[in-house]
Design brief:
The chain is α+β, with helices and mostly antiparallel strands. The chain contains three helices and twelve strands, in the order E-E-H-E-E-E-E-E-H-H-E-E-E-E-E. It folds into two domains: 3-34 and 144-179, no CATH class; 40-138. Helices cover 16% and strands 28% of the residues.
Amino acid sequence: MPGKLKVTGSIRTPRDPIEVKAYCEGRAYAKGGGSIVYATGVTGVIANNNAIKWTSKIPGNGFEVNLVNAGASQTLSISVNGPKVFVNLATNSSGVITSTAAEVITAIGATTASSAVVSAANEGASTGAAAPVVQGVTLTGSNFNQIVSEVGVVFAAGVASWTADPTGVGQDACALPYGGGHV
């Protein structure tokens, strides 16, 4: 059955009926009054003023945030590769981290790729004034499914829309057997 599945802002042909089924199940859950809980994780220590709370913007568990020291004389930069966010911390010529947790939080929000999938904020009473801890965290606690397809596209149940192909036919994939028959 031809069609396109809109997945987190991009459109591609579904490669697996499970992706369509996951969307349809998520939509049915939301229509039934269900509330989505987003996955979270924390890096750093509140008392050290470098604790950052990470919250996924896409339902599901398994997103990773990695704070990295890549060596001497680095600038603060952020990249996203599928369900992984990499924060390359700024360092001086000796390799000592010069970024603060507050700067990382600001950079996450200002970077299009990262701000589409995760948000960052000071955790608890942390001020964000100190250098972040080099570590990784896997975001957990969501009540929703997430699928990473064979091409690395992150798909979260209920966070996509279906359009029939050719355009304008107006069929709802969730009402079709391919979509699991959900409404």
